[in-house]
Design a protein that fits this description.
single chain; 207 residues; alpha+beta; 3 helices; 8 strands; 26% strand
Length: 207
């Protein structure tokens, strides 16, 4: 009996110490992790809106409402995580950066930011989270001429479709070779951003 009590006390002590240690580690790492996340987001914003002098949170932005809006528009695997204003040096709004997560990736969620100017021109996308297959879906992160991402730079914002036979219209994009699932996931996310962007600049007339 005494041994049982002793063992129980030892286990309790170990649990308490482990819990305290985990809590301590969490408190120590929480701020650096949050800072790293914020830095990554700022880098993503800047990469898709190089002309912006700064970015401002939209005070009344509601991720749930934005996601419901795009879901009802047919994008059921997309979540609009955030939307910020891109500002020039005089604090004029020159466009928006939308951050979207799609769960339609081959390897799970893909999170990326898309810049769209007030004139409806896509500046490109920047991925902050992706777990696609190396050498295939991960090519969605590639940049430069001939890359999948290059198709979304300086391009009119519209609803895109993926083709494996060569894009032949303004609304088509070429799939990444052997990574059609990733290509469609990325394109679906961009289409969701375009849809939400149009609701912002078009107001209630687009709802």
């Amino acid at each position: 009996m005494n041994k049982l009590v002793k063992d129980a006390l030892v286990l309790t002590c170990i649990t308490l110490v482990a819990g305290f240690a985990l809590g301590l580690v969490y408190e120590i790492t929480k701020a650096p992790i949050e800072k790293a996340h914020q830095d990554a987001m700022k880098e993503a914003y800047s990469s898709v809106f190089a002309d912006a002098a700064s970015f401002a949170e939209i005070e009344d932005f509601d991720s749930s409402a934005a996601t419901t809006y795009v879901n009802q528009a047919g994008y059921g695997t997309e979540t609009i995580d955030n939307c910020v204003e891109a500002l020039d040096a005089s604090n004029n709004v020159i466009g928006y950066v939308l951050t979207v997560t799609t769960s339609a990736g081959y390897g799970g969620n893909i999170t990326f930011s898309v810049g769209i100017t007030n004139d409806g021109i896509i500046n490109g996308y920047s991925i902050t989270e992706i777990s696609e297959t190396a050498g295939l879906g991960m090519k969605a992160k590639d940049t430069g001429d001939g890359s999948f991402s290059a198709q979304f730079i300086n391009r009119a914002a519209e609803i895109f479709t993926v083709t494996k036979t060569g894009a032949s219209s303004s609304s088509e994009v070429d799939a990444i070779s052997a990574a059609t699932v990733t290509s469609r996931a990325m394109t679906g996310g961009i289409n969701a951003c375009v849809t939400y962007f149009e609701s912002i600049v078009g107001g209630a007339s687009n709802e």
